[in-house]
Amino acid sequence: MAESSWASLLHWSKWMALANGSWHALMAQAPAEAMLLLSWMLSSDSTSPALAPNETDRRDAGPTEQGTAVMFMSNHPVFTKAVVPRLREAAGRFVVVSSVAEVGEYCKELGCDYIHFPTCENAMRFAAICKEQPAYAAEVEKTYEVLKEWKPDVMITCGFFVLPPRAVKIPSKVALNLHNAKLPLYRGGVAYQAQILRGEPTFECCVHVMTDVIDDARDVLVRSRPLCLEGKTTLDAIQATAEVAPQMILDALHMVLSDEVREPEEVPTGDLPHAFGVKKQTWTDAAGVRWSSNCGVLSRVRIEWSEDTAVDIERASRAFNVRYHLFTDYQGRPFRVDHCMLQPEATTKPPGQILWASGRGEDLLVGVATCDGRVVLLRGQLVDGAAPVGALEVGSRFESVTLVSDWLKYPNTDRLPGGLRYC
User: Fold this and answer.
1) Which end of the chain is more exposed for a tag (fewer CB within 10 A), N or C?
2) Which positions, given as ranges, span the membrane (predicted)?
């Protein structure tokens, strides 16, 4: 067997061993060996195997694409490095637009034309920040003028800001977007996280025509095959998307430039699952006070020990393993969850109570009771900048008190008591 095959088999064997065994028992009988085992298991080789690439036949650039001015806009280095080589080869004129320095550096190394878009302090709040900060809005408007002067025929976004209608109308022919869900399901900016939280076993990507409606599903050009999401993290899903994105974008480009006749899709309506990080729920109480609560995806970044089951916590740890990070609090100090594993044993201890603990400083390991009588193994660290602690005290409890808006530095992300819970 090839070395890579042995490594893959060994990797999955390690994780299965922990999932099926009793960590509590191992810690009690051989704590040193248990710590060594867990450190080995959570080391840098623990990423999931890459998902299979798109099975769509590779389409080479035709004469229609080769005479086209294409503008590719992305703030994701992973997507840029996957898409740009093939898309650049297919286009007549080609330019990349991004606010991320790594993307700019990659384009420079590649010898590819590049336009820098003003960096935004919070990509999810791009539209709001343009309204709140006149100086930043002025920079953005100047950049829109630069984009117009480049005169693109086609604009393609893939992990970029939500653009206003006037920007979507810059290309002479069409603006396309690659969305990481099966539209009209999971419209919004955190679709990976939303689908993982809801326990979807697979996800799909699609390329659609952009309009003044966010993630408009009325003109979807290309859909990917289902991609595995079971047991995967957001980072895994991003890599899977990067593998199918180049061919999907080329296929969509060919469709719009060759004027292929497309039958409009019938878009389902009703209460469809969404992927908006912030979605306000408002109500007025008996005293006439008006309240506003977030029932969007980002409200789930904080563990609610009274209602999050063991499975809920494990899914959230995978959903928020990039950028946001799941958290709770220990004695008033924020505790960031870096990994979570379900344990087989049951418990009658109250939710949030620490059943066993080990590790020190930035590598703390704790077994914690959940509201459904199960146990989760959390690996994480206290992140408030105070002095590191030793092992957390067995019998003490996690209690989430830090506001989501403070944790994320993102207003209006808090869910109020009594507010609707996402998923």
Assistant:
1) N
2) none
Distances (CA, A) of 15 to 8, 210, 355: 11, 42, 22
Place of tokens 């829109």: 144
- Domains observed in the chain: 63-257 (3.40.50.170), 303-401 (3.10.25.10)
pLDDT band at 277 (very low <50, low <70, confident <90, very high): very high
What separation in angstroms does the CA of 193 have from each of 132, 137, 181, 239?
27, 29, 11, 14
Q: How many Å apart are CA 385 and CA 248, to the nearest integer?
A: 45
Q: What is the DSSP string of 50-111?
A: PPPPP-SPPPPP-HHHHT-EEEEE-S-HHHHHHHHHHHHHH-SEEEEEES-HHHHHHHHHHT
Q: What is the mean pLDDT of residues 253-275?
A: 81
Q: Is 29 exposed, middle or buried (0-12, 13-18, 19+ CB in 10 A)?
A: exposed
Q: What percent of the chain shows pLDDT beyond 90?
A: 74
| Average pLDDT of the chain, as a whole number | 86
